[in-house]
Amino acid sequence: MAIPAFTSTFVTRRTRTPLAQRAHVSKRRPLTTMVATAPKPLVKPASPCFSSGPCKKRPGYTLAEALGDAPLGRSHRSKLGKAKLAEAIRRTKEILQIPADYRVAIVPASDTGAVEMCMWSMLGERPVDIVHWESFGKGWYTDAKTHLQLEDLREITVDEYGLLPALETVNSSHDVVFTWNGTTSGVRVPDGADWIKDDREGLTICDATSGVFAMRIPWPKIDVLTYSWQKVLGGEGGHGMLVLSPRAVARLESYTAPRPLPKVFRMTKKGKIDEALFEGNVINTVSMMCVEDYLDALKWCEAVGGLDALVKRSQDNLAAMEEFVARNDWVSFLAKEKRYRSSTSVCLTLDLPKESVKALQGMLEGEGVAFDIGSYRDAPPGLRIWCGATVEKEDITALCKWIEWGYEQVKE
């Protein structure tokens, strides 16, 4: 039968195919391939490294430049080795603007080791509040309850990723353990930490590993702070940093924990703080290659303008992400409120099923655009994009365009 002159059409999202051609086309390939998609972006990020740990190295990083002065094959207890470790501590205090009477040490086992050595050494004298809103903070509560078996322990939490607990309910007469920035939820403590009282009786123990060097720490509010090199500075793993206030030192010297302490957890000798530990005389052997890498990162921090510049770089990256979210109604921040939105571990949710989100991640990795940006396994399906100080804003902007392109591909 002849086709009428008013030839009908088969409509797709972006093209119109004459009905006379429809049967021929459909025999050759699925109809979904007929959808015209936006062209690939022309510009890729200069670095596809957006992992939330280990994180991207500083801009312009090369092994030859960064590690050329590393004292490899030398003892960490040699004069040169001790000088390098002492330099790392000194530069840390200067860049982070740590008070002069606070002590800084390099300790084993990354941020996890630093947190654990403080919990095992200090907790138990008074009741403990543990505040958590994502997986790593929850881990500190589990350890306190199951392994330390603290009797007077209170959990302050929320049932949903993206929310912040009622911080104002923390009892100032209790010790409190909390994360400054929830790496797996994209939720951070608001600036100022006003919920921590100046006249508190208990200690504040803060895991700040994905916040320090990108967010300002109100040091008078903090008694213990821990972090690791592989986060905001893009350093190497395996080593932790420990910052103690005079109040924390007083606790160590006045309280003996009712539990055996492994050697790597011991910070006192004969009832007094081991001052050598805070001068670079580490508990166990460190990697001098990693120390040199950390020193390289600290020197870069100084070169770009110190803490003010580092905070601005991360905030600028967050602003680029906020522009991206504002122009697309299919993507949202996991953090429910802007005031506690992380500027480092930016967590996003998409209006796609889990399988499509994974397909998008795989597509971006295959294009060499972004590596390791899937949400944490315990978090809702989505993307987690590192926006710390070592990441360039131009790379964030380019990545966002690629995410927009990838979304159009996988949603079909």
Task: Please tell me about this protein's structure.
The chain has helices at residues 19-28, 63-67, 79-96, 110-122, 135-147, 246-254, 288-304, 306-326, 354-366, 393-410; strands at 9-11, 16-18, 103-108, 128-131, 153-156, 175-179, 181-182, 187-188, 204-207, 224-228, 239-244, 268-269, 272-273, 331-333, 345-350, 383-386. The chain is built from ten helices and 16 strands. The strands form five sheets. A seven-stranded mixed β-sheet has the order 3-11-10-9-6-4-5, sandwiched between helices. Helix 3 (79-96) runs parallel beside helix 7 (288-304) and helix 7 (288-304) packs across helix 8. The protein is globular. The relative contact order is 0.17. With 412 residues, the chain is of the alpha/beta class. The chain has two domains: 63-302, Type I PLP-dependent aspartate aminotransferase-like (Major domain) (Aspartate Aminotransferase, domain 2); 306-410, Alpha-Beta Complex (Aspartate Aminotransferase, domain 1).
The CATH C-level class name of the largest domain: Alpha Beta
- Work out the helix count: 10
- The tally of domains stands at 2
The largest β sheet comes out as: 7 strands, mixed
Count of beta strands: 16
Distance between the termini: 34 Å
What is the overall pLDDT average? 92
Order of helices and strands: EEHHHEHEHEEEEEEEHEEHHEEHEH
CATH architecture of the largest domain: 3-Layer(aba) Sandwich
Strand order of the biggest β-sheet = 3-11-10-9-6-4-5
**Shape label:** globular
Judged by helices, strands and strand pairing, the structural class is: alpha/beta
CATH topology of the largest domain: Aspartate Aminotransferase, domain 2
In terms of DSSP E residues, the strand content is 5-15%
Find the CATH superfamily of the largest domain: Type I PLP-dependent aspartate aminotransferase-like (Major domain)
Taking pLDDT < 50 over at least 5 consecutive residues as the criterion, the unreliable ranges are 1-35
Helix content range = 25-40%
Radius of gyration: 25 Å
